[in-house]
Design goal:
Elements (H helix, E strand, L loop, with lengths): L1 H13 L5 H16 L2 H7 L1 H28 L11 E3 L2 E3 L9 H8 L1 H32 L6 H13 L2 H11 L6 H8 L11 H29 L3 H9 L4 H12 L1 H16 L2 H8 L10 H10 L6 H28 L5
Helix pairs in contact: 1-2, 4-16, 6-10, 6-13, 7-10, 8-14, 10-13, 10-14, 13-16, 15-16
Length: about 350
C-alpha cells in the first residue's frame, strides 16, 4: 500500500515513476526553451546578427579602440617627449610610465578645470534654451497654412545645409571689427564699432549667437515633425470649448511635443557641450581664454601646448565623457519618473 501510494505521488509529480526533482528540472528546461534562451535567439535571428556584425566591428575600430587608448593614456605620463616616434630611419621607443589616477587628481585640483566647466555649462544652457525656444516658435509658425510657406522652410533650413566651418568663417567676417558688415551697419547709424571678437563679453555673445544660428534649423525641423503628428481634432475640440490660444498651446501642443522635445534637448545638449568648431574657428578660445570650453582645452593640451601633453588631453577627454554620461543617466531617470519610456 505504501509503495503504491509513493508511486502515485511520483507519477503525479513527474510522470510515470519519474523522480520529482528530475521532473522539475525537465520542466524548467522546457519552459526556458519555449521562452527562448540566448542560443535559440541566435539561431532564430542569425540573419539580423550577421547584418549588424559589420557595423559593430566598424564602431569598435573607430570608437572603441580610440576610447580604450585614450583611457589608457590618461593613466600614464605620456607627452611629446616620451612617446614612441620615428625620426628618419631611427625609431625611438616610448618611455612613458603608468601613473594611475594622478592626472585626474591634478586636473580636478586645477582651478582652470572649474573655470572651463562653469563656462561650458553656461554656454550649453544658453545655446540649448535659446535654440529650443526659437525652434519651437518657428515650428509653430510654419505649421500653419500661408502663402510662401515652402520658401520660408527652405530659407530656414539653409543654415543646416551649409557646412559648419563655412558658416563660422562667414560669421567671422561679419564680426570683423574694422571691415565687418555688422560694424559697417552700426557705423552708418552713428554707433561706434563693437569689438565682437576682441572683448570677452562680446566674444561670448558672438559664439552663442553663431551656435544658435546653426542649431535652430535642426530644432525647428524636429519640432515641426512633432507638431504635425498631433491630431488636429484636439485643437478643434479645445477651440469649441472656448480655450484660448495660450491654453491650447499649454495643454495640447506642449504635452504632444514632450517625447520629441526630450530627445532633441538631449541631442542638442551633447552636441553643444562638445561644439569644438564654433569656439575654435571663431575665437580660438579667446580673447585670452574667455571662451575656452572643455573640449577646446583638451585640444590645446594635445596640439598647442609645448610639450604636447597627450596624457593630460586624454584625461580631459575622459572627464568630458564621464560628465556627459552622468547627465544622460540623470536625464533618463527624470524621464522615467515623468512616465516617458527611453
Amino acid at each position: 500500500m505504501a509503495a503504491h501510494t509513493s508511486q502515485s505521488v511520483a507519477k503525479a509529480a513527474g510522470g510515470d515513476g519519474e523522480d520529482p526533482v528530475a521532473a522539475r528540472g525537465r520542466s524548467r528546461r522546457t519552459d526556458s526553451t519555449r521562452r527562448g534562451g540566448p542560443g535559440r535567439a541566435l539561431a532564430t535571428h542569425w540573419y539580423a546578427w550577421a547584418m549588424i556584425a559589420p557595423v559593430v566591428l566598424v564602431l569598435g575600430v573607430i570608437i572603441g579602440w580610440p576610447l580604450a587608448r585614450g583611457i589608457y593614456l590618461s593613466l600614464t605620463d605620456a607627452n611629446e617627449r616620451n612617446v614612441g616616434r620615428t625620426i628618419g630611419a631611427n625609431h625611438i621607443e616610448a618611455t612613458y610610465t603608468f601613473v594611475g589616477l594622478d592626472n585626474y587628481a591634478d586636473v580636478l585640483a586645477d582651478p582652470v578645470f572649474l573655470q572651463r566647466l562653469v563656462w561650458t555649462v553656461v554656454w550649453t544652457v544658453l545655446c540649448v534654451s535659446i535654440t529650443f525656444t526659437l525652434g519651437l516658435a518657428l515650428a509653430n509658425m510654419l505649421n500653419r497654412e500661408f502663402r510662401g510657406r515652402a520658401a520660408y522652410r527652405m530659407a530656414l533650413i539653409l543654415p543646416w545645409a551649409v557646412p559648419g566651418f563655412v558658416s563660422v568663417f562667414a560669421w567671422r567676417f561679419l564680426f570683423n571689427r574694422d571691415s565687418g558688415i555688422l560694424n559697417k551697419i552700426l557705423d552708418g547709424g552713428g554707433i561706434s564699432a563693437i569689438p565682437w571678437l576682441d572683448d570677452p563679453t562680446w566674444a561670448k555673445f558672438s559664439v552663442v549667437a553663431v551656435n544658435v544660428w546653426l542649431g535652430v534649423p535642426f530644432m525647428m525641423v524636429a519640432l515641426l515633425g512633432g507638431l504635425q503628428s498631433i491630431p488636429g481634432e484636439l485643437y478643434e475640440a479645445a477651440e469649441m470649448d472656448g480655450a484660448t490660444a495660450w491654453q491650447r498651446f499649454r495643454h495640447i501642443t506642449l504635452p504632444g511635443l514632450r517625447t520629441v522635445s526630450m530627445t532633441v534637448i538631449l541631442l542638442s545638449t551633447i552636441w553643444t557641450f562638445n561644439m569644438f568648431p564654433v569656439i575654435f574657428l571663431l575665437t580660438r578660445g579667446g580673447p585670452g581664454d574667455s571662451t575656452e570650453i572643455l573640449v577646446t582645452q583638451a585640444f590645446r593640451e594635445a596640439f598647442v601646448s609645448s610639450p604636447r601633453d597627450f596624457a593630460g588631453s586624454a584625461t580631459w577627454g575622459v572627464l568630458i565623457l564621464a560628465l556627459l554620461m552622468i547627465f544622460a543617466l540623470v536625464y533618463r531617470r527624470s524621464l522615467r519618473k515623468q512616465g516617458e519610456v527611453w
